[in-house]
Here is the input.
Amino acid sequence: MKKQFVLDLSATLLGSTFTSVRSEGIPLKQCPESVRETIFHHSQPGRIDGVNAVHVKDRLLYVAEIERPGKGERTLHVGGDGALLRIVDEVRLRDLPKPVKAALHPFLGEGNRFDGADRVVAGDETEYHVDFDLIDEVDLHLVIGEEGRILRHREEADF
Here is the structure.
């Protein structure tokens, strides 16, 4: 599931359809120097678990998975020129900002289960992607802005 998310997100970032996306794991040392520097700079204090080179038509994106001690996983999306495109950090429920927690309040309880959250930073924009397992085997995915406004939501049934 995580690999498909990376491919979907990478295709979205590069403005492509999913049919033309190809991803391959590569050693960090095979990345261009500017990409290595960006990954190293944004991985501290953490351990780089792996890097994928994502080919979309004639463009290249690097996606690095970082394990951060006590903080969960970080995913970096870096352009072929070393530009940082996106940071995705796992976030615990208790560490979400108050406005985001307030937006989640109606979904907590009644058999619903918090299933994880990511803080997604791209440029000056920060969003929180939050997943819930609802009753009746329905998954809820919310995208919430820093100010607590629900920007998007999607429900999926587990059939």
